[in-house]
Amino acid sequence: MLRYLLSRAGYRGPVIVEEKADARYPEVSVASIIAKHVRDARIRVLSHLYGVEGSGYPSDPRTVEWVLRTVESGLRPPIIRYSWGTLDKVGMRVRKGSGGGRPTLEDFM
Q1: DSSP code of residue 79
Q2: CA angle, corner 88, sides to 82 and 94, nearest 5?
C-alpha cells in the first residue's frame, strides 16, 4: 500500500520499511514529528466541531469513553470509525461484508 501511495504521488525511489526507523533515519524522525503536529491540530479542530475528547487513538481511555458515550447517546458523527472493535462493547460495530448475526449500525438507524 505504501509503495502504491508513493508512486501515485510521483515518488520513484527505493522504499525501506523497518521497525524503529525514526531512530535510524533523521528524515523519518522529522516526518514523524511533523505528522504528529498535523494530527494534533486536526484533533483540536474535531474537538471544537464534535467535542472529541482525548488523542483520537484507540489506546486512549478518554477517546474510548468519548466514542462510547457519543454512540450510546444516539449521535452519529461522521468522524467515528464504525468498524472500530471498541464499538463491539455497545453492539454498534459495522462489519464490512457482514451478512448477519449481530446487529450493525445500520440496524439502529
Answers
A1: T
A2: 35
pTM beyond cutoff 0.85: no
Q: What is the mean pLDDT of residues 12-25?
A: 89
Alpha carbon 102 to chain centroid, angstroms: 23
* The residue to which cell 501511495 is assigned: 5
Q: Is 93 helix (H, G, I), strand (E, B) or coil?
A: coil
Cell 502504491, residue located: 4
Task: Spell out the residues 6+ positions from residue 17 whose beta carbon is closer than 8 angstroms to its own.
Answer: 2
| CA nearest neighbour of 60 among 41, 35, 40 | 40
pLDDT surpasses 60 at 100 = no
Q: Using pLDDT thresholds of 50, 70 and 90, give the confidence band for residue 101.
A: low
